[in-house]
Amino acid sequence: MINIILCGGSGTRLWPLSRTMLPKQFVRLFEGKSLFQDTVLRNASLCSKSMIVSNRDQYFLAVDQLEQIDSHSNQFLLEPAGRNTAPAIALACMALNADEIVFVTTSDHLVKDQAAYEKAVQEAKAIAKQDYLVTFGIKPTYPETGFGYIESNGNDVLSFKEKPTAEVAQSYIEQGNYYWNSGMFCFKAGVFLAELEKHAPEIYQACKKAMPQDNNGDEINIDLAAMQAIPEDSIDYAVMEQSNKVKVVPCDMGWSDLGSFDALYDEVKQPGLVNSILPRLKDSPKPICVNANHNLIVTGERQVALIDVDDLLVVDTSDALLISKKGSSQKVKEVVAQIKKQAPELAEIHRLAHRPWGTYEVLQASEQYKVKRIVVKPGERLSLQKHFHRNEHWIVVSGTATVTVENETFLVRPNESTYIQMGQLHRLENQGKIDLVMVEVQVGEYTGEDDIVRVDDIYGR
Prior knowledge:
Number of strands: 31
Helix content: 10-25%
Oligomer: single chain
């Protein structure tokens, strides 16, 4: 069985933890691991291989995190543009044998009962062998209005329901045969493609046209124009709600999509503790609470103190602070929409930013200068680039930098520095065996990340 892992999505409801360049699935939330890593490890004993569907930026995050865990064979399908889940799953299935059973999961869900999870997957696999499309229905624990529901009679699907009102959701709970639609599926690749061709032929044909002939390597790259020509739709609308081959496996596995800070509060809270505390760093200072109860406190580098407040969500990062009443965290999307207009970089990236070649961290910034700490991994190099609005001073802290400026290449060692003038073509690389650590000081009228003209880039950006 092949695990198709869908890595799309920006997780805006968990801002400021989750951002476009480091979305929810790659944020290390529990025990130093990300939800993506948990997904891979959770399915390692069930599946022989993972097919990871991702965009190019998330590909490098995924590769880095896979190197940190004991994962099995992985293949990537790289989408240059998102077209929702039906095309993503279709393209992945087209790279596999028709009789191969696939288990489709997202990369950002939490499962706490591994035994119940494995039992449900094995049941789904047995049903999928009979040429059915199997979905997983999660036993609801409260009347959630943000999920779709599945009405069932055993394994038979009676109907799919859209996100209900609170009153309707409560009636579903009382009836007892309604389940949350989990977004997980199990079927033969060929059976799914046949049903897609039957019910959404335009998606099927466009995906078939976009699929490269050579798709046996570690990376399958989809052409941008071909991807954009694929109609956008979810697997639920395109296939599952149309097909007569659908079955459901009702299950109770301690599942959560962690789609909001309220959901995160429910997972973090511990018996006997008044507040739910999630430290983001190993050395995050413990919050001080004086007559403050039932709060979620996500801590970073700073000391957080609460006095005489109850039922709050407090999320502290190095460059943004979110404070909300519990029960209102779905409105974070509205905050992000305003952030994108007012300070777009805060929606895109953390001060500590991950790149294919390593990381950079903004230490200080003002209107006319910015100071960064840059770490380049061994054997990696940045793009050959230039800037039109800033000069750069590079000071090496450890390791050895190989620097190219116009037609000259030279070494910069610890406690040495160099200067890159505005408009000059330049490149930084680490040809050594240890991390290259350096401080970069940008000085100019504009220091935004979009003031980069790439002439050559090994990462295809």
